[in-house]
Amino acid sequence: MSNKVIEHLIHAFQAPLTNPVLIFSVVLLIILLSPILLRPIRVPGIIGLILAGVVIGPHGLNWLEKNSAVTLFSTIGLLYIMFIAGLELDMNEFKKSRHKSVVFGFFTFIIPILIGFPVCYYILGYEVLPSVLIASMFATHTLVSYPIVNRYGISKHEAVAITIGGTILTDTAVLIILALITGASHGQINQEFWVTLGVSFAIFLFIMFGIIPRIAKWFFQRLDAEKTGHYIFVLTVVFFAAFLAEMAGLEPIIGAFVAGLSLNKLIPHSSALMNRIEFIGNAIFIPFFLISVGMIVDISVLTKGPSALIVAGTLTIVSVFGKFIAATITQYIFKYSSNQRNLIFGLSNAHAAATLAVIMVGYNNNIIDENVLNGTILLILITCIIASMVTENASKKIVLEGHQDDKHIEHVEESEEQIMIPLANLKNMEPILDFATLIKSKKSPYPLSIVSVVPDDEQAEINVQDAKRNLENMAKYASGAETEVELLTTIDFNIPAGIARMSKKVMADCIIMGWPSATSIVEKIVGEKSESILNNTDSTLFMLRLNKPLISHRSIVVFVPPLAESEVGFEYWLEKTFKLAQELSLPISFVCEPRTEDSISLIYKKLKSSVKVKFETYEDWDNIYGLATFNSPDALLVFVSSRQGEVSYRDSLDGLAKRVGKYYKSQNLILLFPARQANEHIDEYETIQTSPFMRKISKGLGNIFNKEK
User: What is the pLDDT at residue 523?
Assistant: First the structure.
């Protein structure tokens, strides 16, 4: 019996896997673990999944083979990528600056092609059709680094708007070229081809923009309660459009892209339907496609001679250079600054979804070889990293020039303020509650929300009862100070996620929690609880270590890093700091740069605060330990930090809680994270946050692109 079981297991796990349940389980496990394992080294998600495909594919461990099931899911993922690309384009921003967008779109399309074609044809030695296809691939770009400009509050900047508009034009033009190249590769380019293509394309566009939007509008209005039906309808439109495009002699991905454009106005970007579309795509279909791309890649090609490496290097250099020239010409025509030029270049330099789609079509039609496929993977990795670094560098300098959006800074009305306190260690809760009482607006009618998140396990019901008892103890303590509280209990598999969910539910402007405790090895790999709470919330967050009574202090020292004044929550946390000082009758000493001092002074005058304030200048913010010179033993120390990737974030703020906690062992500490704009990603698998090492490289890279030509 045991031998049969062993034989059955050996057969089930024999490579390549044949059991469909096991295959799907392996793919899901890769989708789950890939971002977790690659997060510490900040490898883009799109590359991580492709690398996973390389490892498990026929040219790696040979766990999976390209069978019909993998091909089906891969095709769905490819269409899904192009559909989302069309759906998420901001047509309103395009209309505002359409004339400049057309100019930039023309240059960012034609220049990479004019540079790329001769390089591919004469230097790399490819035929005409492959050379045209590869050159057109250089023209595409994906807005991978758009979340960066959104965080810096410059998403309405003209340079950003024309880049978004250019994306619409260049991607559409490349897809049209792709249709022509595919037809030519099959020997179909003749007079009949042009007539058929013209007529069928016109009919296709009429159906997609004349009929489909009317049907969709009727469907969404009449069947408002059928939320599942809305998603199924959208999927039906996508695949029907892909089929129509194929019937018209075009590539199916063109149909999916046009489907996104036709439904663009009917599906708001912040709607529940959009959330479902992105969630399911990012969870299953798109990762499956990326893994299938990796399964095609043959790393051994790189060892068969220098040709593969030469192709990969050439593709990358030509791509980056072409986009930079296009941005530079646009700069001279519209008299933009070098920072605006760099912003345009950073946003338009990244190659991801559209590039991958074009290359896969070319590879499947035997127009390009493995060298180009492998080179494209390297191209995607390098351009995503360059785009992220250049965009961040340029965004920061544009903020310094004073070009942030007017509505970027958040103002919280005192009468609307909501404060939330996650319940953790009961021993530390009383001073936290006291602190919250001191900084809470007296004009706000809302109680303090004390939240307890209980793990969803077999002890959940018992834990809920314990949590309620603990909350009641806190309510009794709060009643002594006549502080009104609201007690909330929720169950969640993940405590940080539960806290983040509750903060959105109560619409918290401020979250107050205890100092981060020591973490296990697993938490360090997956993400510490405090870091997870930071990443999953957008509100102002205070972390407190209050081991001594607040009345024992003689002053408050606030360490404010450069560009803190450009954060969304700057004004709010400053008001809370002045209120705390006023309640405790303590003077405040701000340690900051002159620019930040000016911004603090403006708000100080606006608030007409009676708190005594002084400023001390510190400029070496890469050396956090140098701040100790401004410390006094009886001072309450407030360290202003920021979430990773935000305007004022810098390498020296990494692990700040742990570092200052060890250095200032005997003092009360407050670590403050300002509010930020809600993080809006174009595609979860296309974003990249640079690692500290990469951010250091970006300083030098930024200087290179800042030189005027």
Answer: 43
